[in-house]
Amino acid sequence: MQGQPIVRVRGVHKYFTRGEEQIDVLKNLSLEVPEGEFLGLMGPSGSGKTTLLNLIAGLDRPSEGEVWIRDQLISKMSEAALASWRTRNIGFIFQFYHLLPVLTAYENVELPLLLLPLSSAERQKQVLTALDLVGLTNRMHHRPGQLSGGQQQRVGIARAVVTDPTLIVADEPTGDLDAHSAEEILNLLCELQKSLRKTILLVTHDPRAAERAQRIVHLDKGRLVEGDTSTAIRPAPVGAVAGMQETAIKQQGS
Fold first, then answer.
1. Could you give the residue ranges of the DSSP H alpha helices within the chain?
2. Do the Cβ atoms of 109 and 159 come closer than 8 Å?
3. How far apart are alpha carbons 212 and 209 in whole angstroms?
4. Which terminus of the chain has a lower count of CB atoms within 10 Å, N or C?
5. What is the pLDDT of residues 177-222, one digit of tens each?
6. Are the C-beta atoms of 134 and 155 separated by less than 8 Å?
7. Cα 230–160–162 angle (5° rounding)?
8. Nearest-5° angle of CA 54, CA 168, CA 27?
9. In sequence order, which residues have a C-beta less than 8 Å from that of residue 253 and are 6 or more positions away?
């Protein structure tokens, strides 16, 4: 059973200017996302998917309209307030991981916590919990170059959830992975939504990734496509996280 809307996008218009030309990216778009939902955002290149995700995540502002997360109007926050809000409320998962190559998996996951008023012991507890969730405690001292693509993305997911964020936003998180690794990552996202009741927004071009979402929203030329905004729920396999931990153990030393 889904909760009340956690995301409310109201009459959003986003445009850029190039000289005297106005380029419309999103056009009078409204969307609500219930708390605890796994939402997929699909559409052709240039349809506005990533722009919408960035507006919801507080990385960008609409030209017109409002973006609410719970009872906070984030589209009107100051830059300083928005930066602080993102640290506590948004977990980012990127296509190309964005891990710092000189840091270990543990240190990469710890980074967001350094911005919060936590003791070293509190940070350690949260990092170990996040790494255990993705099945990588046995690789915590490895640097990204010593990890496979799937393992690097799991580090990225651990970093995204370590602050216990309100929203997890994922932009093509399986786009750089082989089919097996992509399946593992999708299983993990489903498990996060199911077990931890996380609200997840997933941008993807891959129908196999999108079908894991509880609902799919299609965008085309900056607008929601009417009559094609949902798909059947495909639940995560039972014990997906445990299965990933078993895989990580098998890969140790590889």
1. 49-56, 79-89, 105-110, 120-133, 149-161, 179-195, 207-210, 240-251
2. yes
3. 6
4. N
5. 999 999 999 999 999 999 889 999 999 988 889 999 999 999 999 9
6. yes
7. 130
8. 30
9. none
Segments of the chain scoring below 70 in pLDDT: 1-3, 226-254
Q: Token digits for 32? A: 């609500």
What secondary structure letter does DSSP report for 58?
T
Where are the domains positioned within the chain? Answer: 35-55+79-251
Contacts of 21 (CB under 8 A, 6+ apart): none
The Cα 150–Cα 163 span in angstroms is 21
Please count the other Cβ atoms lying within 10 Å of the Cβ belonging to residue 83: 12
CATH architecture of 35-55+79-251: 3-Layer(aba) Sandwich (3.40)
Angle between helices 179-195 and 149-161 (to 10 degrees): 20
Report whether 225 contacts 218 (CB < 8 A): yes
Question: Using the 8-state DSSP alphabet, how is residue 82 labeled?
Answer: H
Note the pTM of the prediction, 2 decimals.
0.83
